[in-house]
Design goal:
The protein is an alpha+beta fold and 285 residues long. It has two domains: 114 residues, D-amino Acid Aminotransferase, Chain A, domain 1 (2-Layer Sandwich), CATH 3.30.470.10; 154 residues, D-amino Acid Aminotransferase, Chain A, domain 2 (Alpha-Beta Barrel), CATH 3.20.10. Helix content is 26%, strand content 31%. It contains seven helices and 15 strands. The strands form two sheets. Strands 7, 8, 9, 10, 11, 12, 13, 14 and 15 form a nine-stranded mixed β-sheet that branches. The protein has a six-stranded antiparallel β-sheet with strand order 2-1-6-5-3-4. The longest helix has 14 residues. The two termini are 30 Å apart. The model has no long low-confidence stretch (mean pLDDT 97). Bound molecules: 4'-deoxy-4'-aminopyridoxal-5'-phosphate.
Length: 285
């Protein structure tokens, strides 16, 4: 993604895509002092744009740093990025991190906080799984406890086990991996939340040790509008045996049906289709 035409917003200005670089002694590269957002624009408008900018600020706070741009300034920067790159349907990546400077130890009080926003075209995250139902591996790593790491931040450090688990899943011919949490409950995929259907009701893990995704919250609202009961609760992996349908939610994933998780199979059923279609409409309203 580094060698191409385009413009990236960096620390207050649009610069050439190829020049959007950082120094090798960037604190974030060594110590994961970085937070980010994944957003999607539909027809030139970012879905839940403000919520994403607010979450970026909240994530930075959880890592004990302040983003030097207000939510309004970030909103304006995102508009500039889409316009400068002539994008209408696009993925938007905002990232904020502790840069290079006076400090090279673990402490980083004097290094500047840097912010960048890039955007590019990015189609279906799970490719044709979106139609057939994705196949998921069960990750060997567990989502950590909220006493171990700030689990509600969208922070780079939480993605180390995501990359490892996703690679392992792909090596086995799966599209993604499903994490259990430190207690053994079903948690989330490497970049998406999960929902199950049984007897016309929906069950989804309680987000007490992972990201309560913006798409997840949107989909819960859509289900409630349809008077469908949503149980946010702790789910044991064995319960997957009795669930009939399953889907993932995320900005990149949107609503993606799941056909298989480890030994458990699901049908791509009517409610899954309905919610996936309704989400596609909603993001363009
Ligand atoms: N969990 C993880 C680990 C993620 O990376 C994402 C994607 N941001 C999600 C859940 C879903 O969040 P959202 O719906 O806000 O994109």
């Amino acid at each position: 993604y580094d060698d191409r035409d385009g413009q990236i917003w960096m620390d207050g200005e649009l610069i050439d895509w190829r020049s959007a670089n950082v120094h090798i002694l960037t604190h974030a590269l060594h110590y994961a002092s970085s937070v980010f957002e994944g957003e999607r624009a539909y027809g030139g408008k970012i879905f839940k744009s403000r919520e994403h900018s607010e979450r970026l600020h909240a994530s930075a706070k959880m890592l004990d740093f302040e983003i030097p741009w207000s939510v309004d300034q970030l909103e304006e920067a995102k508009r500039q990025v889409l316009k400068a790159n002539g994008l209408s349907d696009a993925y938007v990546r905002a990232v904020a991190w502790r840069g290079a400077g006076e400090d090279m130890g673990v402490a980083s009080r004097r290094n500047p906080v840097r912010v960048a926003i890039a955007a590019w075209e990015w189609g279906a995250y799970y490719g044709d799984a979106k139609m057939k139902g994705a196949k998921l591996d069960i990750a060997k790593w567990k989502r950590p406890s909220p006493e171990t790491i700030p689990v509600h931040a969208k922070a780079a450090g939480l993605y180390m086990i995501c990359t490892m688990s996703k690679h392992e899943a792909e090596n086995k011919g799966c599209s993604d991996a499903l994490f259990m949490d430190y207690r053994g409950y079903v948690a989330e995929a490497t970049g998406a939340n999960i929902f199950f259907v049984k007897d016309g009701e929906v069950h989804t893990p309680k987000p007490d040790c992972f990201l309560n995704g913006i798409t997840r919250q949107t989909v819960i609202g859509m289900l409630e509008d349809r008077q469908i009961k949503v149980h946010e609760r702790h789910i044991m992996p064995e319960e997957m045996e009795g669930f009939e349908q399953c889907w993932l939610t995320g900005t990149a994933a949107e609503v993606t049906p799941v056909g298989q998780i480890g030994p458990y199979n699901f049908e791509v059923g009517q409610l899954t289709r309905e919610i996936a279609d309704a989400y596609e409409k909603l993001v363009r309203e």
